[in-house]
Amino acid sequence: MTDFTTILLRDLTQLLEKGIDYNVVIQAGEEPNTKSFRAHSGILKARCPYFQTALSETWVKQEDGIIIFSKPNVSAEVFEVVLRYIYTGRIALDKHDGVDILNLLMAADELILHDLFGYIQQHLVTYKVQWMEDNFDLVRRTVFQNDRLKRLQEYCVARISTIQQCIPLVRIFQISSNDFHSRIMPYRDIIPKALFEDVMRYHMVPDCPRPLSLMPSRRGGIESNLLRSRHAALISSWIDRNDLNAFYNTTNIKAALLSRVQEPSRAVLCSQAIGACFGSGDLVMGGTHSNFNVELGCSCKRQSYERPLMITNHDRFSVDEYEVFKIVSKLGTLNHTTLN
């Protein structure tokens, strides 16, 4: 048996595009974005259960023998895609964004196109998962308005359950006002009411303190004004190479200076009159009375470490702040003291 399906589809496409012997005009969309489509009642009734009733003599309006049918709740762009599907049985969802596909799904449901309706649902949960996650509020509000969207409702229920389990782990008070409005507000229905009200009060009431029971900020276990978790990772890599007696000087961690001690007995010294010192002058933090904030109150001269802290030996400089860390253990925490 010879298959002439390709030729049939070509001819039906031309019939639609050229409107040969059409007897129906369908006006889709709302003003000012409307468009009229010429079609054939026989094909519409044969392919679409909705039009079997909608184009019956009881409902139709005719002008000069042409049926005039209005469909304002379906956009012209969406109806054009659906009409082409009715004529050819083909649709290319990969050429449409998520919003268009969601609108196509709702149109397929209204026009009782069961095969297309099921296919679009499957396409969304298979190929548009990332888009649905990024636009979850839109998807959720849309699918729960229609009891027939079971597959998408199951997806939303599963995601809501996951989100609810994660809520206690979210540092929600550390989210900026802008991000809270755009990323958190859409989920207000699944956030505990008391928590949501506390967050709203925090963002809207001036000088409103954050609750004391909040989870700590994610700093990798470090309480520091100078270091972040990425800095700790670098220091940890130094320690793993037995760089225990070392110092670094930088405001840019990528340009950190690591210097190993050559005289272990003089790695770190401390004097009440001077303050913390590394080596026999490699890094002296402050002059008289440990005042390292005074102008040019600190100095460095390579003595006990392999590399100088400053490019030029004997350089004098001032320090605004420094922190001293104590390494407890590989599984422990990094303790520190901040000196101003």
TrEMBL record:
Gene3D superfamilies: Potassium Channel Kv1.1, Chain A (3.30.710.10). The keyword Repeat applies. InterPro entries: ABTB1, BTB/POZ_dom, SKP1/BTB/POZ_sf. Pfam families: BTB. Coiled coil: none annotated. One of its GO terms (cellular component) is cytoplasm. SUPFAM superfamilies: POZ domain. Keywords: ANK repeat, Repeat. This is 1272_t:CDS:1. The lineage of its organism: Eukaryota, Fungi, Fungi incertae sedis, Mucoromycota, Glomeromycotina.
